[in-house]
């Protein structure tokens, strides 16, 4: 079966896609591959020369390590880039205050507060960002990825057209057509089950299409949605080749 992908919508940094002709195993494999095997940049090595803030060095290093960094696709696994921050109070140190030695690399959210400095307090830190996959640490996950099945509302002969399900829906995506309730927006259904609870399982039932899914992607490392998915599939292909070689050795 041919797999088709269609963009549904984009809200802020989150994009949703309708994926047809696939299975739970494959779409979950893509999700896990993004989380575990698609590399991006994150701060790993931190050298603190001055830290006059209220944060302990360990806490400061942890905050720096979790900052999302814009990743250039030309970087390969294990590549490094140097970043520095040097500030004197009174001020709040933000992500925008961190400077990179590579103009293509930057903190993606410049308004993230790191620490506060009072008068005469100083902060001087050098950092190394390393290109690694998410299986090493959550800070190397390039995106937040999720998926869900597309619901369908099955109406039985027991339904009396009372419209209780329409009133019970918390996001108003059920409407009555004649005496039959229908989902007017399958893509935004939260699967809360309020409609079924209001009318009873004898009258209504939520079912799912096992070949159609909604894939939601929120990049956090400056990569586009396309680059995130391409990196995920590339990692899956490489692992499949490695698995095939291992099988050949068993013959």
3D architecture notes:
The structure is a single chain. With 251 residues, this protein is an alpha+beta fold. The chain has helices at 24-37, 57-65, 164-168, 194-199, 225-250; strands at residues 4-11, 14-20, 40-51, 80-88, 91-94, 99-100, 113-117, 122-132, 143-155, 174-177, 180-183, 204-219. Helix 1 packs across helix 5. It is flat, with a radius of gyration of 24 Å.
Short descriptors:
12 strands, 251 residues, 4-stranded antiparallel beta sheet, alpha+beta, RNA Polymerase Alpha Subunit, Chain A, domain 2, 24% helix, Gyrase A, domain 2, 5 helices
In short:
With 251 residues, this protein is α+β, with helices and mostly antiparallel strands. The chain is 24% helix and 38% strand.
Q: What topology does this entry show?
A:
Blueprint: E1 4-11, E2 14-20, H1 24-37, E3 40-51, H2 57-65, E4 80-88, E5 91-94, E6 99-100, E7 113-117, E8 122-132, E9 143-155, H3 164-168, E10 174-177, E11 180-183, H4 194-199, E12 204-219, H5 225-250
Antiparallel strand pairs: 1-2, 2-12, 3-8, 4-6, 4-8, 5-7, 9-12, 10-11
Helix pairs in contact: 1-5
